[in-house]
Here is the input.
Amino acid sequence: MSVSYENSKIVFQGIKDAGITSLSALPETWLGLLLQQAEKDPDIRLIQVAKEEEAIGIAAGAYFAGERHILLMQNHGFLAAMNGIVSLAMLYGIPLCMLIALRGHWGEPYPWHTRGGIVTEGVLRALNIPFEYARHPKDVGRQIREAYTFSQSSLSPVALLLTRDLMEEAL
Amino acid sequence: MKRAECIGMLYPELDDKVVVTIMGACAQELYDLGHKENFFYLQHAMGLASSIGLGLALHLPQEKIVVLDGDGSVLMNLGTLATLARYRPRNLVHFIFDNGSLLSTGGFDSHTTSGITDLAAIARGAGIEHVAAVDSVMAFGEAAIEAFARNDLGVIVAKVAAVGPNQYGMDLQLPENAFRFKRWIAGRKLAAAQATTANTPPALVSNERSE
Here is the structure.
């Protein structure tokens, strides 16, 4: 299976259209093509982290600075960022707009992704983090824009789950 | 030396800087000198003070950012030193008060006790060029002055005694601190923008008519 170049472009355009000027990310396969575009774009600042929890702090700093920032990570990175999400973002009322690659779910061939994929929605629900699934290229731009808007109005983390339907080439 | 002495030395320099401090004793000692709107106290999420500082520094290039960190917090997020080195914000000074102890949680030894782990060496190894390790108030003051004047990313590891304040408490709710801190930064940005506008001569208006 390979990552969809067309849909990666559409997701990146959705990020641009939402007025985002700053991204923090930890590269992963589904996000690779998207991040390559971000690297080349002079209007986007891309900050790569060593571990996803750092990005929660960076996002908070960007928010304090008045910058339109989103986070890109794999769902396992979301799990690794948990205390930052709870004890920085939620505790202080700092918005986070997280685009999360949902590995290890329907159609997943790799065993190592499955446990994280199975628990992701449950963890989001336990933390009361609003989320949506992004499945269709025609909707994802609007979903990114709305996720960002909602994060800012609710002063809360929100998650848009990037699914296999969206991120991989159709067979 | 005591961390409180170092913070007391820094305090007069902090009026026009954006300051992020870790939880516990460090936050309290800063607060006890007198809260300012440009102070953000990260009372949990150990390890992320320097990440917040990086996010601030990259997006506020005209401001000076100060992070007051500790050995226990840095040990929880060692990757931050590599990320700081990679992006090298020229406007960030990262102070690490190393008391070799998880003081706020009962004073257990941290990995830096007895010189087992050397945070300054880790910072250098991560690729940070300007790293100072100090263990006297005089050396701390000199290192701080140099770091503020240098206009480059600096890390100062200060060996301090494992002592903290006798009492804890702040008259400041956590979200309130975040809201006011953000508002102070927004006010600075607005004032800087207005100053720029005021200093710029009015745009020349062409008298030529375009048909």
Remarks:
- Chain A has a mean pLDDT of 97.
- The two ends of chain A are 8 Å apart (CA to CA).
- The interface with chain B takes residues 22, 24, 45, 47-51, 53-67, 69, 83-84, 87-88, 91-94, 155 of chain A (CB under 8 Å).
- Chain A has one domain: 5-166.
